[in-house]
User: Fold this.
Amino acid sequence: MPYTRVGGAMVFPPPLLARVQTDGSFSGRHGARVAAILTGADAMTTHRHLAAINAVNSHEAEWASVAAGLLLALENNETAVGIENDCLGVIAALSSHGPDAPRLRHEYAREWRAEIMRMAAETAWTGVRWIPRAANRADDLFRLR
Assistant:
């Protein structure tokens, strides 16, 4: 599936994108965590991020993971970014932004969407797409620790 643009100065994606796969986790045993794997636009550099966060549920952890992945890309000077996540609700909410976007029910979702859009506006181009959980390598980071 193609990426859906969510921000950036360019209307169309450049030929080379950094790819960020993100995932959120929430459990009584481990608490809330976010994971992200960034593959640079050069396809040769890879960065991994795993962090504990404060979240009220697994849905907030997914929102936070997208923000963490985009921040990881910006911190590594990637300005053209494709974000992949396996939470259809988060990807759908990010894909339908703007004045016609449906109002998100939870305050945390509205705050995370605003933060993601703020960061995306700093890029040359940022897009999102849904991927199946089996294809999301960021999920593997939770099992490595």
Residues 5 and 104 are 19 Å apart (CA to CA).
